[in-house]
Please model this.
Amino acid sequence: MIDFLNHFLLFTLAGIGMLLVPLAIGRLVRPRLPSPEKDAIYECGEPTIGSSYVQFDLRFYVVALLFIIFDVEVAFFFPWAMVYGNAMQLADGNLGDEARRTLTNRLLTAPGEVGQEITADAAHWLGVTGLIDILVFFGVLLVGFAYVWKRGDLDWVRAVANAPTSADRS
Amino acid sequence: MSNQPLFWIFALLTCGGAVGVVISQNIVRMAFSLIVSLGSTAGLFFLLEADFVGATQLLVYVGGTLVLLIFGVMLTASGPFQQIRVSPGETFLGAAVGLLLLSVIAFTVIDVEWDTLNAARTEASPGAESGNTARAIGLRLVGIPADHEIGVHEGRGGRTGYLLPFEIVSIHLLVVLVGAAYLARAKRRVADGSTGGEN
Amino acid sequence: METPLAYYLFVGAVLFVSGIVCMATKRNGIAVLMGVELVLNGANVNFVAFAHYTPLGLDGQIVSLFVIVLAAAEAAVALAIALNFYNNHQTIDVDRGDKLRG
Model:
């Protein structure tokens, strides 16, 4: 674990150093000839207008909402995928004893003292139930996605296209 | 097995970020302090050998929830409302109550003999110790309650691990998605200037 | 020498108290939401610390996982409410939302 600490500190110091050294070199080498045009804030060549604290369009919120919902979903996919991959490898009937023991220990994250190996049938059952679980999980979320899509919350130009007839319920 | 320096770094960043959220008046600076605090909390999770929880903290919390909050800041920040002043009396009262509450909790933490818990730790499940927790968490989420029960799944009646909460989370997310989209749609209709009354 | 459990609990306590004070004193609605996030994180630190230091094993980690997920969902809904509030009142100051009629 002391190894880990050293790696972390080395990584942090290297990161800070790689940031600071080019900046310092640039500061020492570059000529300094300021002018009002150079000191102005760069905004794609346009003159800057107002502060940067502008109000965003409200349509961005729906995109952020979808992002966070499916972000959570992906976070739940990771552990399932690890279990599923392992279980499907174990479900192979003509797997050698040694490989089966290694895979069992990996699946149970036990450092090598599990009594019996997982049989191919049990692993197959585990993989299939896991797949059904995750499909239910995903399917329920897709219902919400379909709802949002159907109601037109994802249409970027809807507000312009039919603003007067916005009473489009039912 | 000395993680002490790393612990101090992450603990100080976590507490400093949290205090920064409280004492800052600018909402954008508050959001930045919150990022520092939550990111360092992920570091604490890694130190506690909860690698998957730490990764989820970074992925969902720092990468998702905070982005959403910053969206909220940008969707509502406009001119004078960016900083809302709080009177000095309220600030003082809040600080006093906060310190009182903190000292109550701190004295409780110091008083309890936690070492007895440490002694019983050796019988903990092996997955929690090795720091490689994603597979073990996955097993529990798909319904295997304990590590050693896969081979004997015939007697699985009534023990489903965390499968039910896992599926409830999906229903919950569905409700959140539909409800928040509904609220956003009502708001957009008002923003369009047409009648928002039917909502 | 391993870090004692009490240190982690103290970090959790600082997060919790900061969140409580933030919720109580801030008048910006988004800032109140940030206080809620801090409180949930303090609870999370405690859950994971107890999962590591006690025989509970992975259960504490899974509970904290659900807390993270529910915090994300809570932030989404609360933000939608805050945006509606902003749209109706043209401000995010929660002290102005003292009428029952929208």
In short: Chain B has a mean pLDDT of 78. Residues 1-81 of chain B form a domain with the Four Helix Bundle (Hemerythrin (Met), subunit A) fold (CATH 1.20.120.1200). Chain B is about 70% helix and 0% strand. Residues 163-192 of chain B form the longest helix (30 residues).
